Amino acid sequence: AFSWHKSRWMRPATGAMRRSQELALALLAFIGAQLAEAQEGLWTSSGWHEQDRDWSSLYIESAAIFGGAAVLSVIAAVKAKKITHALEKAFEVIGRVVATFPCTAICLATLLSLMASAGCMYIEMASDPQNVWVPLGSPALGHRDLVNEMWPGDLHFDTLIMEPADGGINVLEPRYIEALFAADRKLMSIVVDGDAIAAANSASEYGRRYTGTWTYQGIQSTKAMCFKAAGTTCYKPSFLDIFGDIKGAIPSLTPELINASLVRWESVELYDEVPGTGKMKVFQLEDILGGVKRDVYGNIVSADVVLVVYSFAVVVRPGLVTSPGEIPSRKDPILAVWEADAVCMLGLAERHIFTDEPCHPIESVLFTGSLYRTIEDLLTPAVFADVRMFGGGLLITFVYLAAALGKRDSVHSMIVIAMVELVCILFSIGICFGVGAALRYQYNQLLNLIPFILLGVGVDDAFVLALEYLEVASRYPDMPIVEQIAQVSKHAGTSVLITSLTDSIVFFIGVGTVLPGLASFCFHGGVAVLACLVTQMTIFLPALALNAKRTKSRRLDCICCFKAKAEVPLNEPRGCCTCLPFCGCCHMGRRCYVGDGMLQKLFARADKIEPAWLLGIGGFLFCLAAIGMTSMLKLQKDWRLEWLVPQTSYMGRFLTLTEQYFVPDIPFIVYTQDLDYFQQQTEMDRLSAYLLQAEYITGAADWWSAFRLETIKRTGRIQYDDPNVFWQDMKYWYLDPSNQFQHHIHWTCGEVDTYCNVSAGIQRARSPAFLSSMYMGTGTARYRTMVTLRHEVREIFKNSSKLAAFPYTELFIGYEDIGVVDFELMRNLVMAVGVMAAIISFLIPQPLVAFIVVVLQGVGVCEAIGFAALWGVTLCSISSVSITLSVGFAIDYLVHIGHAYNSKQDGVSHQRAMHALVHIGPGVFHAWISTIVALLFISDAESFIIRILFKVIFPVIVIAGAHALVVLPALLSYLGPHGTRKIHVELPRRVGNGEGEGDLLLPIETTYGKLSNAGEASPYGKGDADCTDAEASIPGRVFETEVQNWDNGIRRPSGGGLGSEFADEEDSMVQVPTDLD
Which helix (H) or strand (E) holds 1001? Predict the structure, then answer.
């Protein structure tokens, strides 16, 4: 009873719109279609019953969080200078300390990291997927425990599909049916040693239950594992039943015999005995044959696949093992061992799960299936596949870091620094898993995302710190190394702090979710991001200091025992052979400027782009935003536990064939207990009517309606007034040999015999039925049907306890996620964005800049959700994690640009935006591209979790990078606030005290400057000088620049005035009146 939703790929548009009007009309048409198709989307509702959720509390929390963010933004704006100075001063101290004692800092940080990682030895695996992905307090979990307690021998089906494997197209050919018979005989011969299992579970109170020898049918004095519907017959509907009760070997099959058997089976009504077989017809042939083809007479002549079902009376108990040393879990160990043998005999696995012996598939046919232990068995290989994939991503990241960091030079390259960054990432992974294990968080498959997340976060921080160091070292080559690292920490530390804090808070907010697996993941993610921040400042930053000392002494990067023969300036790279001491281009004086500083030069020309190009880029980004945000309405809620298994596994193939050939109804059972059936005849009549008449319920096998019809026929009684008569008629009906409902009723007195007091009543009973597949197509439909079913049953027995009557099937456990995932996602998103807004407003104390950053973040997240929906992603626990993560990824690049804009406190908005783009843009670009490359490596992953991560995070990364490098600088250039700081001016020789020229810092206003009492000398100046009060009008825009000192006065720049051609140039000149006195 499974289905698989195929991915829907967005088809690229063909051709180009020649007119903007046509483009607008097409865009409006697309938006209209998206809105029309969103009828079953996330944000729609219907008349079906829904689970009650406290949305009002979410509204209150949202208002409080965003209100607090607004207040904090105002406070930060008032105290902007103090906040900025305090943060810069703190990180400057950190940088100075770790640069002064780099080896001590690295050794101490390494020791603490290893100590924290030691907790990994105590990692506890989450053995029961249901306890990981099902919300805490879900009704289905309580119902499961109650059903397992009330009906310990409950029903479970192992479902197999057989198809030809040798190129055949008709599974009804004799050789395939003989292979099916051979497989069935093998499964019937499996013997399970229950005594060994009981010994392994001797400490459990349930261990004694499994003693003895077990087989499926209980042959040769063994215990039976099958579910017995009536009497001693195992309920095992099989295609082989059409040939009768086969004893020993299957008779010689011919096409004629097969066709005759098929015709005979179809000629009989359902639930009648088939002549010559001794079998009751309990299924139609098209229920178990897929791809059926018929001849002109309507007879079946061929089929593509055949469905095989084995029923089991499972006894599931917690804390059980199949062998000593195994991790205890919730299971039926007898069934687990039987299925392990079956998986190997049918060729579903390459090696036996327990003995590791090779498995041999059955010739000419291929089996796929869904067994009780399937998900647990297939999750472990998926975990190791994810680990191997992380290794590949780590390698690609290292290659990119080695190529992008540093210079193309054997001395100034940073290959060792790239290795240090990988060590920081590995330490962060170890710390988060160690701390999580110490706090008893269980390991689940979702935690496989942590390494991929740290790749993006760690590389982002590494590029920001490393490129900031290169800029400081280039601008101040004679500055002491300790001061260089202090300046790097001062300017880049705050940016790294903002991104790390926002990312970690996103994670820690999710710890309060009702989904245990998601809570564990969020805790590990928050710890991992903070650990990454600490390792960057205590390992990576000191490594930069050691790297600076190495370059000062001309030692080669990878082989520091060797030195370059000549001095190698930082801005004059000598070649690309970074690690070979005898590379020719490194020692022959050749220079290699290819690509050096290319990104800075490219970004510096951003303001030279033609308006037509700007209009085109803006229109393209607007169209993407419109498509993505409208497509968000198509996001469907859907989730199935079996999606966790790899698509290439045997269960993945089984799901594909099931969707292609079979659309079965969903079985469920209505359980009743502790009822006075005599007093509640009316309620039971209403329940029977509901099960038999509801449009979404089919095939109800209701014991109460059978009892009522039989007694009405026999006695004519419609309503009972005497309880003794009622219970005697119930006993008479129950003991009837033709009664097929005896196994659905448990009496209070136990077995009904001469000594049983039937007046004590029925302790518990059950009525099985099916939910029509027409109402179970999507996750939202399944959840609504389940909730409606519960509601209707509860309304019937509203005067009894909540557990007096309830519907349940194990599949309901997987549906529970659909009911809370949207609320949990909205809660996490609102809280994450609100807290992020507060942090950004505080650490970027410019309200308008912070507001633009937060708005672009929200737009990027909405766009990414829309494109993920177009990509076939459904809303579930896994995708909600990825969407929550997208909030952090969407803000990282924007924060770097916004913080760089704020850090340049002089100049107008255009100049500040250009400074941010040129200063931090290359680092953001490298972090952006490296993350995209790492994500592309996992695009073809088998793991469902990794696939969903890619489909959600990849659009976020692409959109966030475009917003940070294109949209945000443009918006800040036109809307951002102007700066009001001081300009750097070198005065003429004739002005001053006559003792020499000096670099003075002169206070100046935004548009028209006033030079007065500017005796404050620059800390890097050549001497002190005084200036008398003087008025000077400087027309035009103001920015940081220098006025060159010439012997014959001040040289005027060509063109005059302060033009944009001087923006962000180190030695540009301004026009100052020559009569300055």
Answer: strand 999-1002
